[in-house]
Write a structure and sequence with these properties.
By secondary structure, the chain is of the alpha+beta class. It has ten helices and eleven strands. Among the domains are: 167 residues, 2-Layer Sandwich (Beta-Lactamase); 117 residues, Heat Shock Protein 90. Helix content is 58%, strand content 18%. Helix 8 links the parallel strand 7 and strand 8. The chain is rod-shaped.
Length: 442
């Protein structure tokens, strides 16, 4: 046994919906702007680092070509103390500085022929493939120093270093590899300085884009609000036109067929008095009169269903009783329970009646029920209408009608939402259906 629930949610007022939509749009836009801004700042940072590394490569090229190559003394590659002393003075005066922490000059076999740290001079460490490629073919390379390598053991504790190496030639014509070590904090500072130049542009661009979207969102929400108002007006016009047409039909029936049948009833009643006692025709006429009276009663119940009496005059309980009378005329057992401490507001009363009318109409059309129970109870500032039948429940056709936009249910949902209420239909196959409507009294 399966069950089906169809629920109508509360519709917020247009202004509240508009504010909520704008707030959601602004929140999503702000989040997107923050994400874009974060990505842009990271990108600026990376660009800044790359530019700082490029600047270190350019500086190393200048130092190698303008300082080291022309200033390198003869005898440095052979370890001449005088040459080493002269190269040390050159390094202190023109190579080392706030950003350059260490310099080294390598021979092709991995021997350090010069370093500003004298402890490394004469030591030998095999060059890597990249260093040998630069030494033999030219060019320049830069990478973060691996401080765990033995030739960098004296740099440990001073922070990360960026090593840049390029080839130079000794006065004796021997190819050497000049290597400069830059403090990475200097690279970071240069990167930050460069990226900070783009931060105002990026931030300003993102904020400008976000601000430009707000007027567009406002215009869009205004159009949506106008469409909602137009839809509501069309719905109200459709309901009003339906009421006018129902009133016309009810008036035609009441002034025409009902009056004629009532006259026939009186005529047949008078005819029965004109027959002699025991005349068989009197019994036939009495039967016809009874059928006619039943037809008049059914038509009057139908008139109440087609166009209810004025709720302010008759009261909601009397109006609901009139709706149930039509079902009684069809042979469906009914019960009505009303618990109200005070009259309902007019708008609420109208919505409750229309919901009951639509629910009972669906019972007649679809439920094949034997009994219907209607309860109307006001409690805690909320009035609850519940229409329960013992019919067949949702079969495939009714469920498809509900899920596919049943017009009566759509109008019902809009009417309930208009007064801030909720509605729900629950059904169990072969177990009946319950329509429940809750509407606030204020």
């Amino acid at each position: 046994m399966g069950s089906t629930d169809t629920v109508g949610a509360v519709s917020a007022s247009p202004d509240r919906s508009r504010r909520r939509a704008l707030f959601t749009f602004a929140a999503i836009g702000l989040l997107a702007s923050v994400v874009v801004l974060a990505v842009a700042l990271v990108a600026c940072r990376q660009v800044g680092i790359q530019e700082a590394i490029t600047s270190a490569r350019d500086k190393t090229t200048i130092l190698a070509n303008a300082v080291v190559a022309p200033g390198m003394p003869r005898g440095l590659v052979t370890g001449d103390p005088a040459a080493i002393a002269a190269m040390q003075k050159l390094a202190n005066d023109q190579l080392l500085g706030p950003d350059v922490a260490r310099v080294k000059i390598w021979a092709e076999d991995g021997t350090i022929v010069f370093s500003d740290d004298a402890r490394l001079i004469g030591t030998r460490y095999p060059l890597g493939e990249e260093e040998l490629e630069v030494l033999r073919e030219g060019g320049i390379e830069a990478e973060v120093s691996d401080l765990s390598r033995p030739e960098n053991r004296f740099e440990v504790g001073g922070g990360d270093l960026l090593e840049v190496y390029t080839p130079v030639t000794s006065p004796e014509g021997k190819p050497l590899l000049f290597e400069a070590y830059y403090r990475y904090e200097a690279v970071n500072a240069a990167a930050a300085q460069l990226s900070n130049q783009f931060v105002p542009i990026v931030v300003g661009g993102v904020l400008l884009l976000a601000l430009l979207q707000l007027p567009l969102a406002w215009r869009l929400s205004t159009r949506i609000q106008r469409d909602q108002v137009a839809k509501q007006r069309l719905l109200e016009a459709a309901v009003e036109a339906s009421d006018v047409e129902r009133k016309r039909i009810a008036a035609d029936l009441h002034d025409g067929v009902v009056q004629d049948l009532t006259g026939v009833t009186f005529t047949l009643a008078a005819m029965t008095n004109s027959f002699e006692p025991g005349d068989a025709r009197a019994e036939s006429v009495e039967t016809a009169a009874a059928h006619t009276r039943n037809a008049v009663t059914a038509l009057r119940s139908l008139l109440v269903e087609i166009y209810p009496p004025n709720l302010r005059d008759a009261g909601i309980e009397s109006a609901l009783g009139g709706l149930l009378a039509a079902l009684e005329a069809r042979g469906i057992s009914t019960s009505l329970e009303v618990q109200l401490s005070s009259p309902l507001p007019e708008a609420v009363e109208t919505v409750i009646f229309r919901c009951a009318q639509e629910g009972l109409r669906n019972v007649v059309r679809h439920a094949n029920a034997n009994s219907v129970d209607v309860r109307l109870i006001a409690d805690n500032a909320v009035v609850t209408l519940q229409v329960t039948d013992d019919g067949v429940g949702f079969d495939s056709s009714v469920e498809a009608a509900v899920s596919g936009g049943h017009f009566g249910l759509a109008v019902l949902g809009d009417a309930v939402a208009h007064v801030g209420g909720t509605w729900a239909i629950s059904s169990v196959e072969s177990g009946g259906t319950t329509l429940r409507v809750e509407v606030p009294l204020t």
